[in-house]
Amino acid sequence: MQDVPWSGGRRDIPATAVRWVDDEPFPGIVLVRFGDDERHEITDKCVIFAGDLAPDSPYPTPTAVTCDVLEVDGETALVRLTWSETDAGLTEIRVPLGLNPDAGKDALPALSEGKASFPA
């Protein structure tokens, strides 16, 4: 395994807000999927995800999950979720490096500084 030059750096990975779950507790709960084949799910407050998610937002809609990159190994990165855990109780997961189609060839393709970018 190789050390990540910006290990511990906070990054946003692309995700999909699938649906609004409930208005309570305030400001509301949303279901988000991400990772390889969107197999990881987080059901949590809408404010922890990127974008202005609301009950009347069109779903599914692009968003992002904030994480800290711990290491890179081949085609995946081990990340620790910053604000939540998955519905399965995981806080550290592996994500494929190919998640972010807009990253430059010299950057880790799945992980971007700042907010995630989405295809047009």
User: What is the rounded Rg?
Assistant: 14 Å
User: What is the SS-derived class?
Assistant: mainly beta
Low-confidence stretches: 1-7, 101-120
Main sheet properties: 6 strands, antiparallel
Query: What is the percent of helical residues?
Result: under 10%
State the shape.
Answer: elongated
Beta-strand percentage range: 35-45%
Discrete helix count: 0
N/C terminus separation: 34 Å
Number of structurally distinct domains: 1
Number of strands: 6
Describe this structure in words.
By secondary structure, this protein is mainly beta. It has one domain. Helix content is about 0%, strand content about 40%. The chain has no helices and six strands. A six-stranded antiparallel beta sheet has the order 3-2-1-4-5-6, with no helix packed on it. A hairpin with a 2-residue loop joins strand 4 (about 60-75) and strand 5 (about 75-80). The radius of gyration is 14 Å and the shape is elongated. The model is unreliable at about 1-5 and about 100-120 (pLDDT under 50).
In short:
This protein is mainly β. The protein has one domain (10-99).
